[in-house]
Design goal:
175 residues, 5 strands, 8 helices, elongated
């Protein structure tokens, strides 16, 4: 099985440390750099026609003329912060790396067996608004302990590293 790479750090305006899945984070950073809608469609894994078909209603909420006249070269000039907080779900085409981390961390083990994890690790809907699952802790050492605990339980295919720069880059586009 391939190694699951996770990173943790503090997001701006949050006192907790958040755990992110690295591949999803890299994709989110790439999304901020998309200059055209075609690039965004490709990054999200859709061909152009499927993208237009599946996201037509959302595009109408973003552009005065909706999807009409759009081509893969149509500039993608977005305010990511307002897009992410709106009812328009097109930003969700790129998975939130905090949610992916929540999903890949095993749910079939009892984290309360470890006193450090029992005290400080929070797995749940802790994102702003509680709409996604996240893994957070108030102390960075908690994630170091999590990596050891997972290995002790037979889950040796996880790498958890502190990376403040990466975590910040994953969410800079939303600020």
């Amino acid at each position: 099985m391939a190694m699951t790479e996770l990173a943790y750090g503090q997001l701006k305006y949050q006192s907790q440390y958040s755990l992110l899945e690295r591949e999803a984070g890299e994709t989110q950073i790439q999304a901020f750099d998309c200059s055209t809608w075609g690039e965004y469609a490709r990054l999200s894994g859709l061909d152009w026609n499927t993208f237009i078909e599946e996201w037509r209603l959302d595009l109408q909420g973003l552009r005065e003329d909706g999807a009409e006249g759009m081509t893969p070269e149509t500039p993608m000039d977005l305010d990511w912060a307002s897009l992410r907080s709106s009812a328009i779900s097109i930003a969700g085409m790129i998975r939130d790396p905090r949610e992916v981390a929540y999903e890949v961390i095993p749910s079939d083990i009892d984290y309360s067996e470890d006193p450090v994890l029992d005290k400080d690790l929070d797995r749940g809907g802790a994102s702003p608004g509680g709409n996604i699952g996240t893994v957070t802790a108030s102390e960075p050492e908690t994630f170091e302990r999590l990596e050891v605990f997972l290995a002790e339980k037979g889950y040796e295919d996880f790498s958890i590293q502190k990376d403040e720069e990466f975590v910040s880059a994953c969410y800079d586009g939303f600020n």
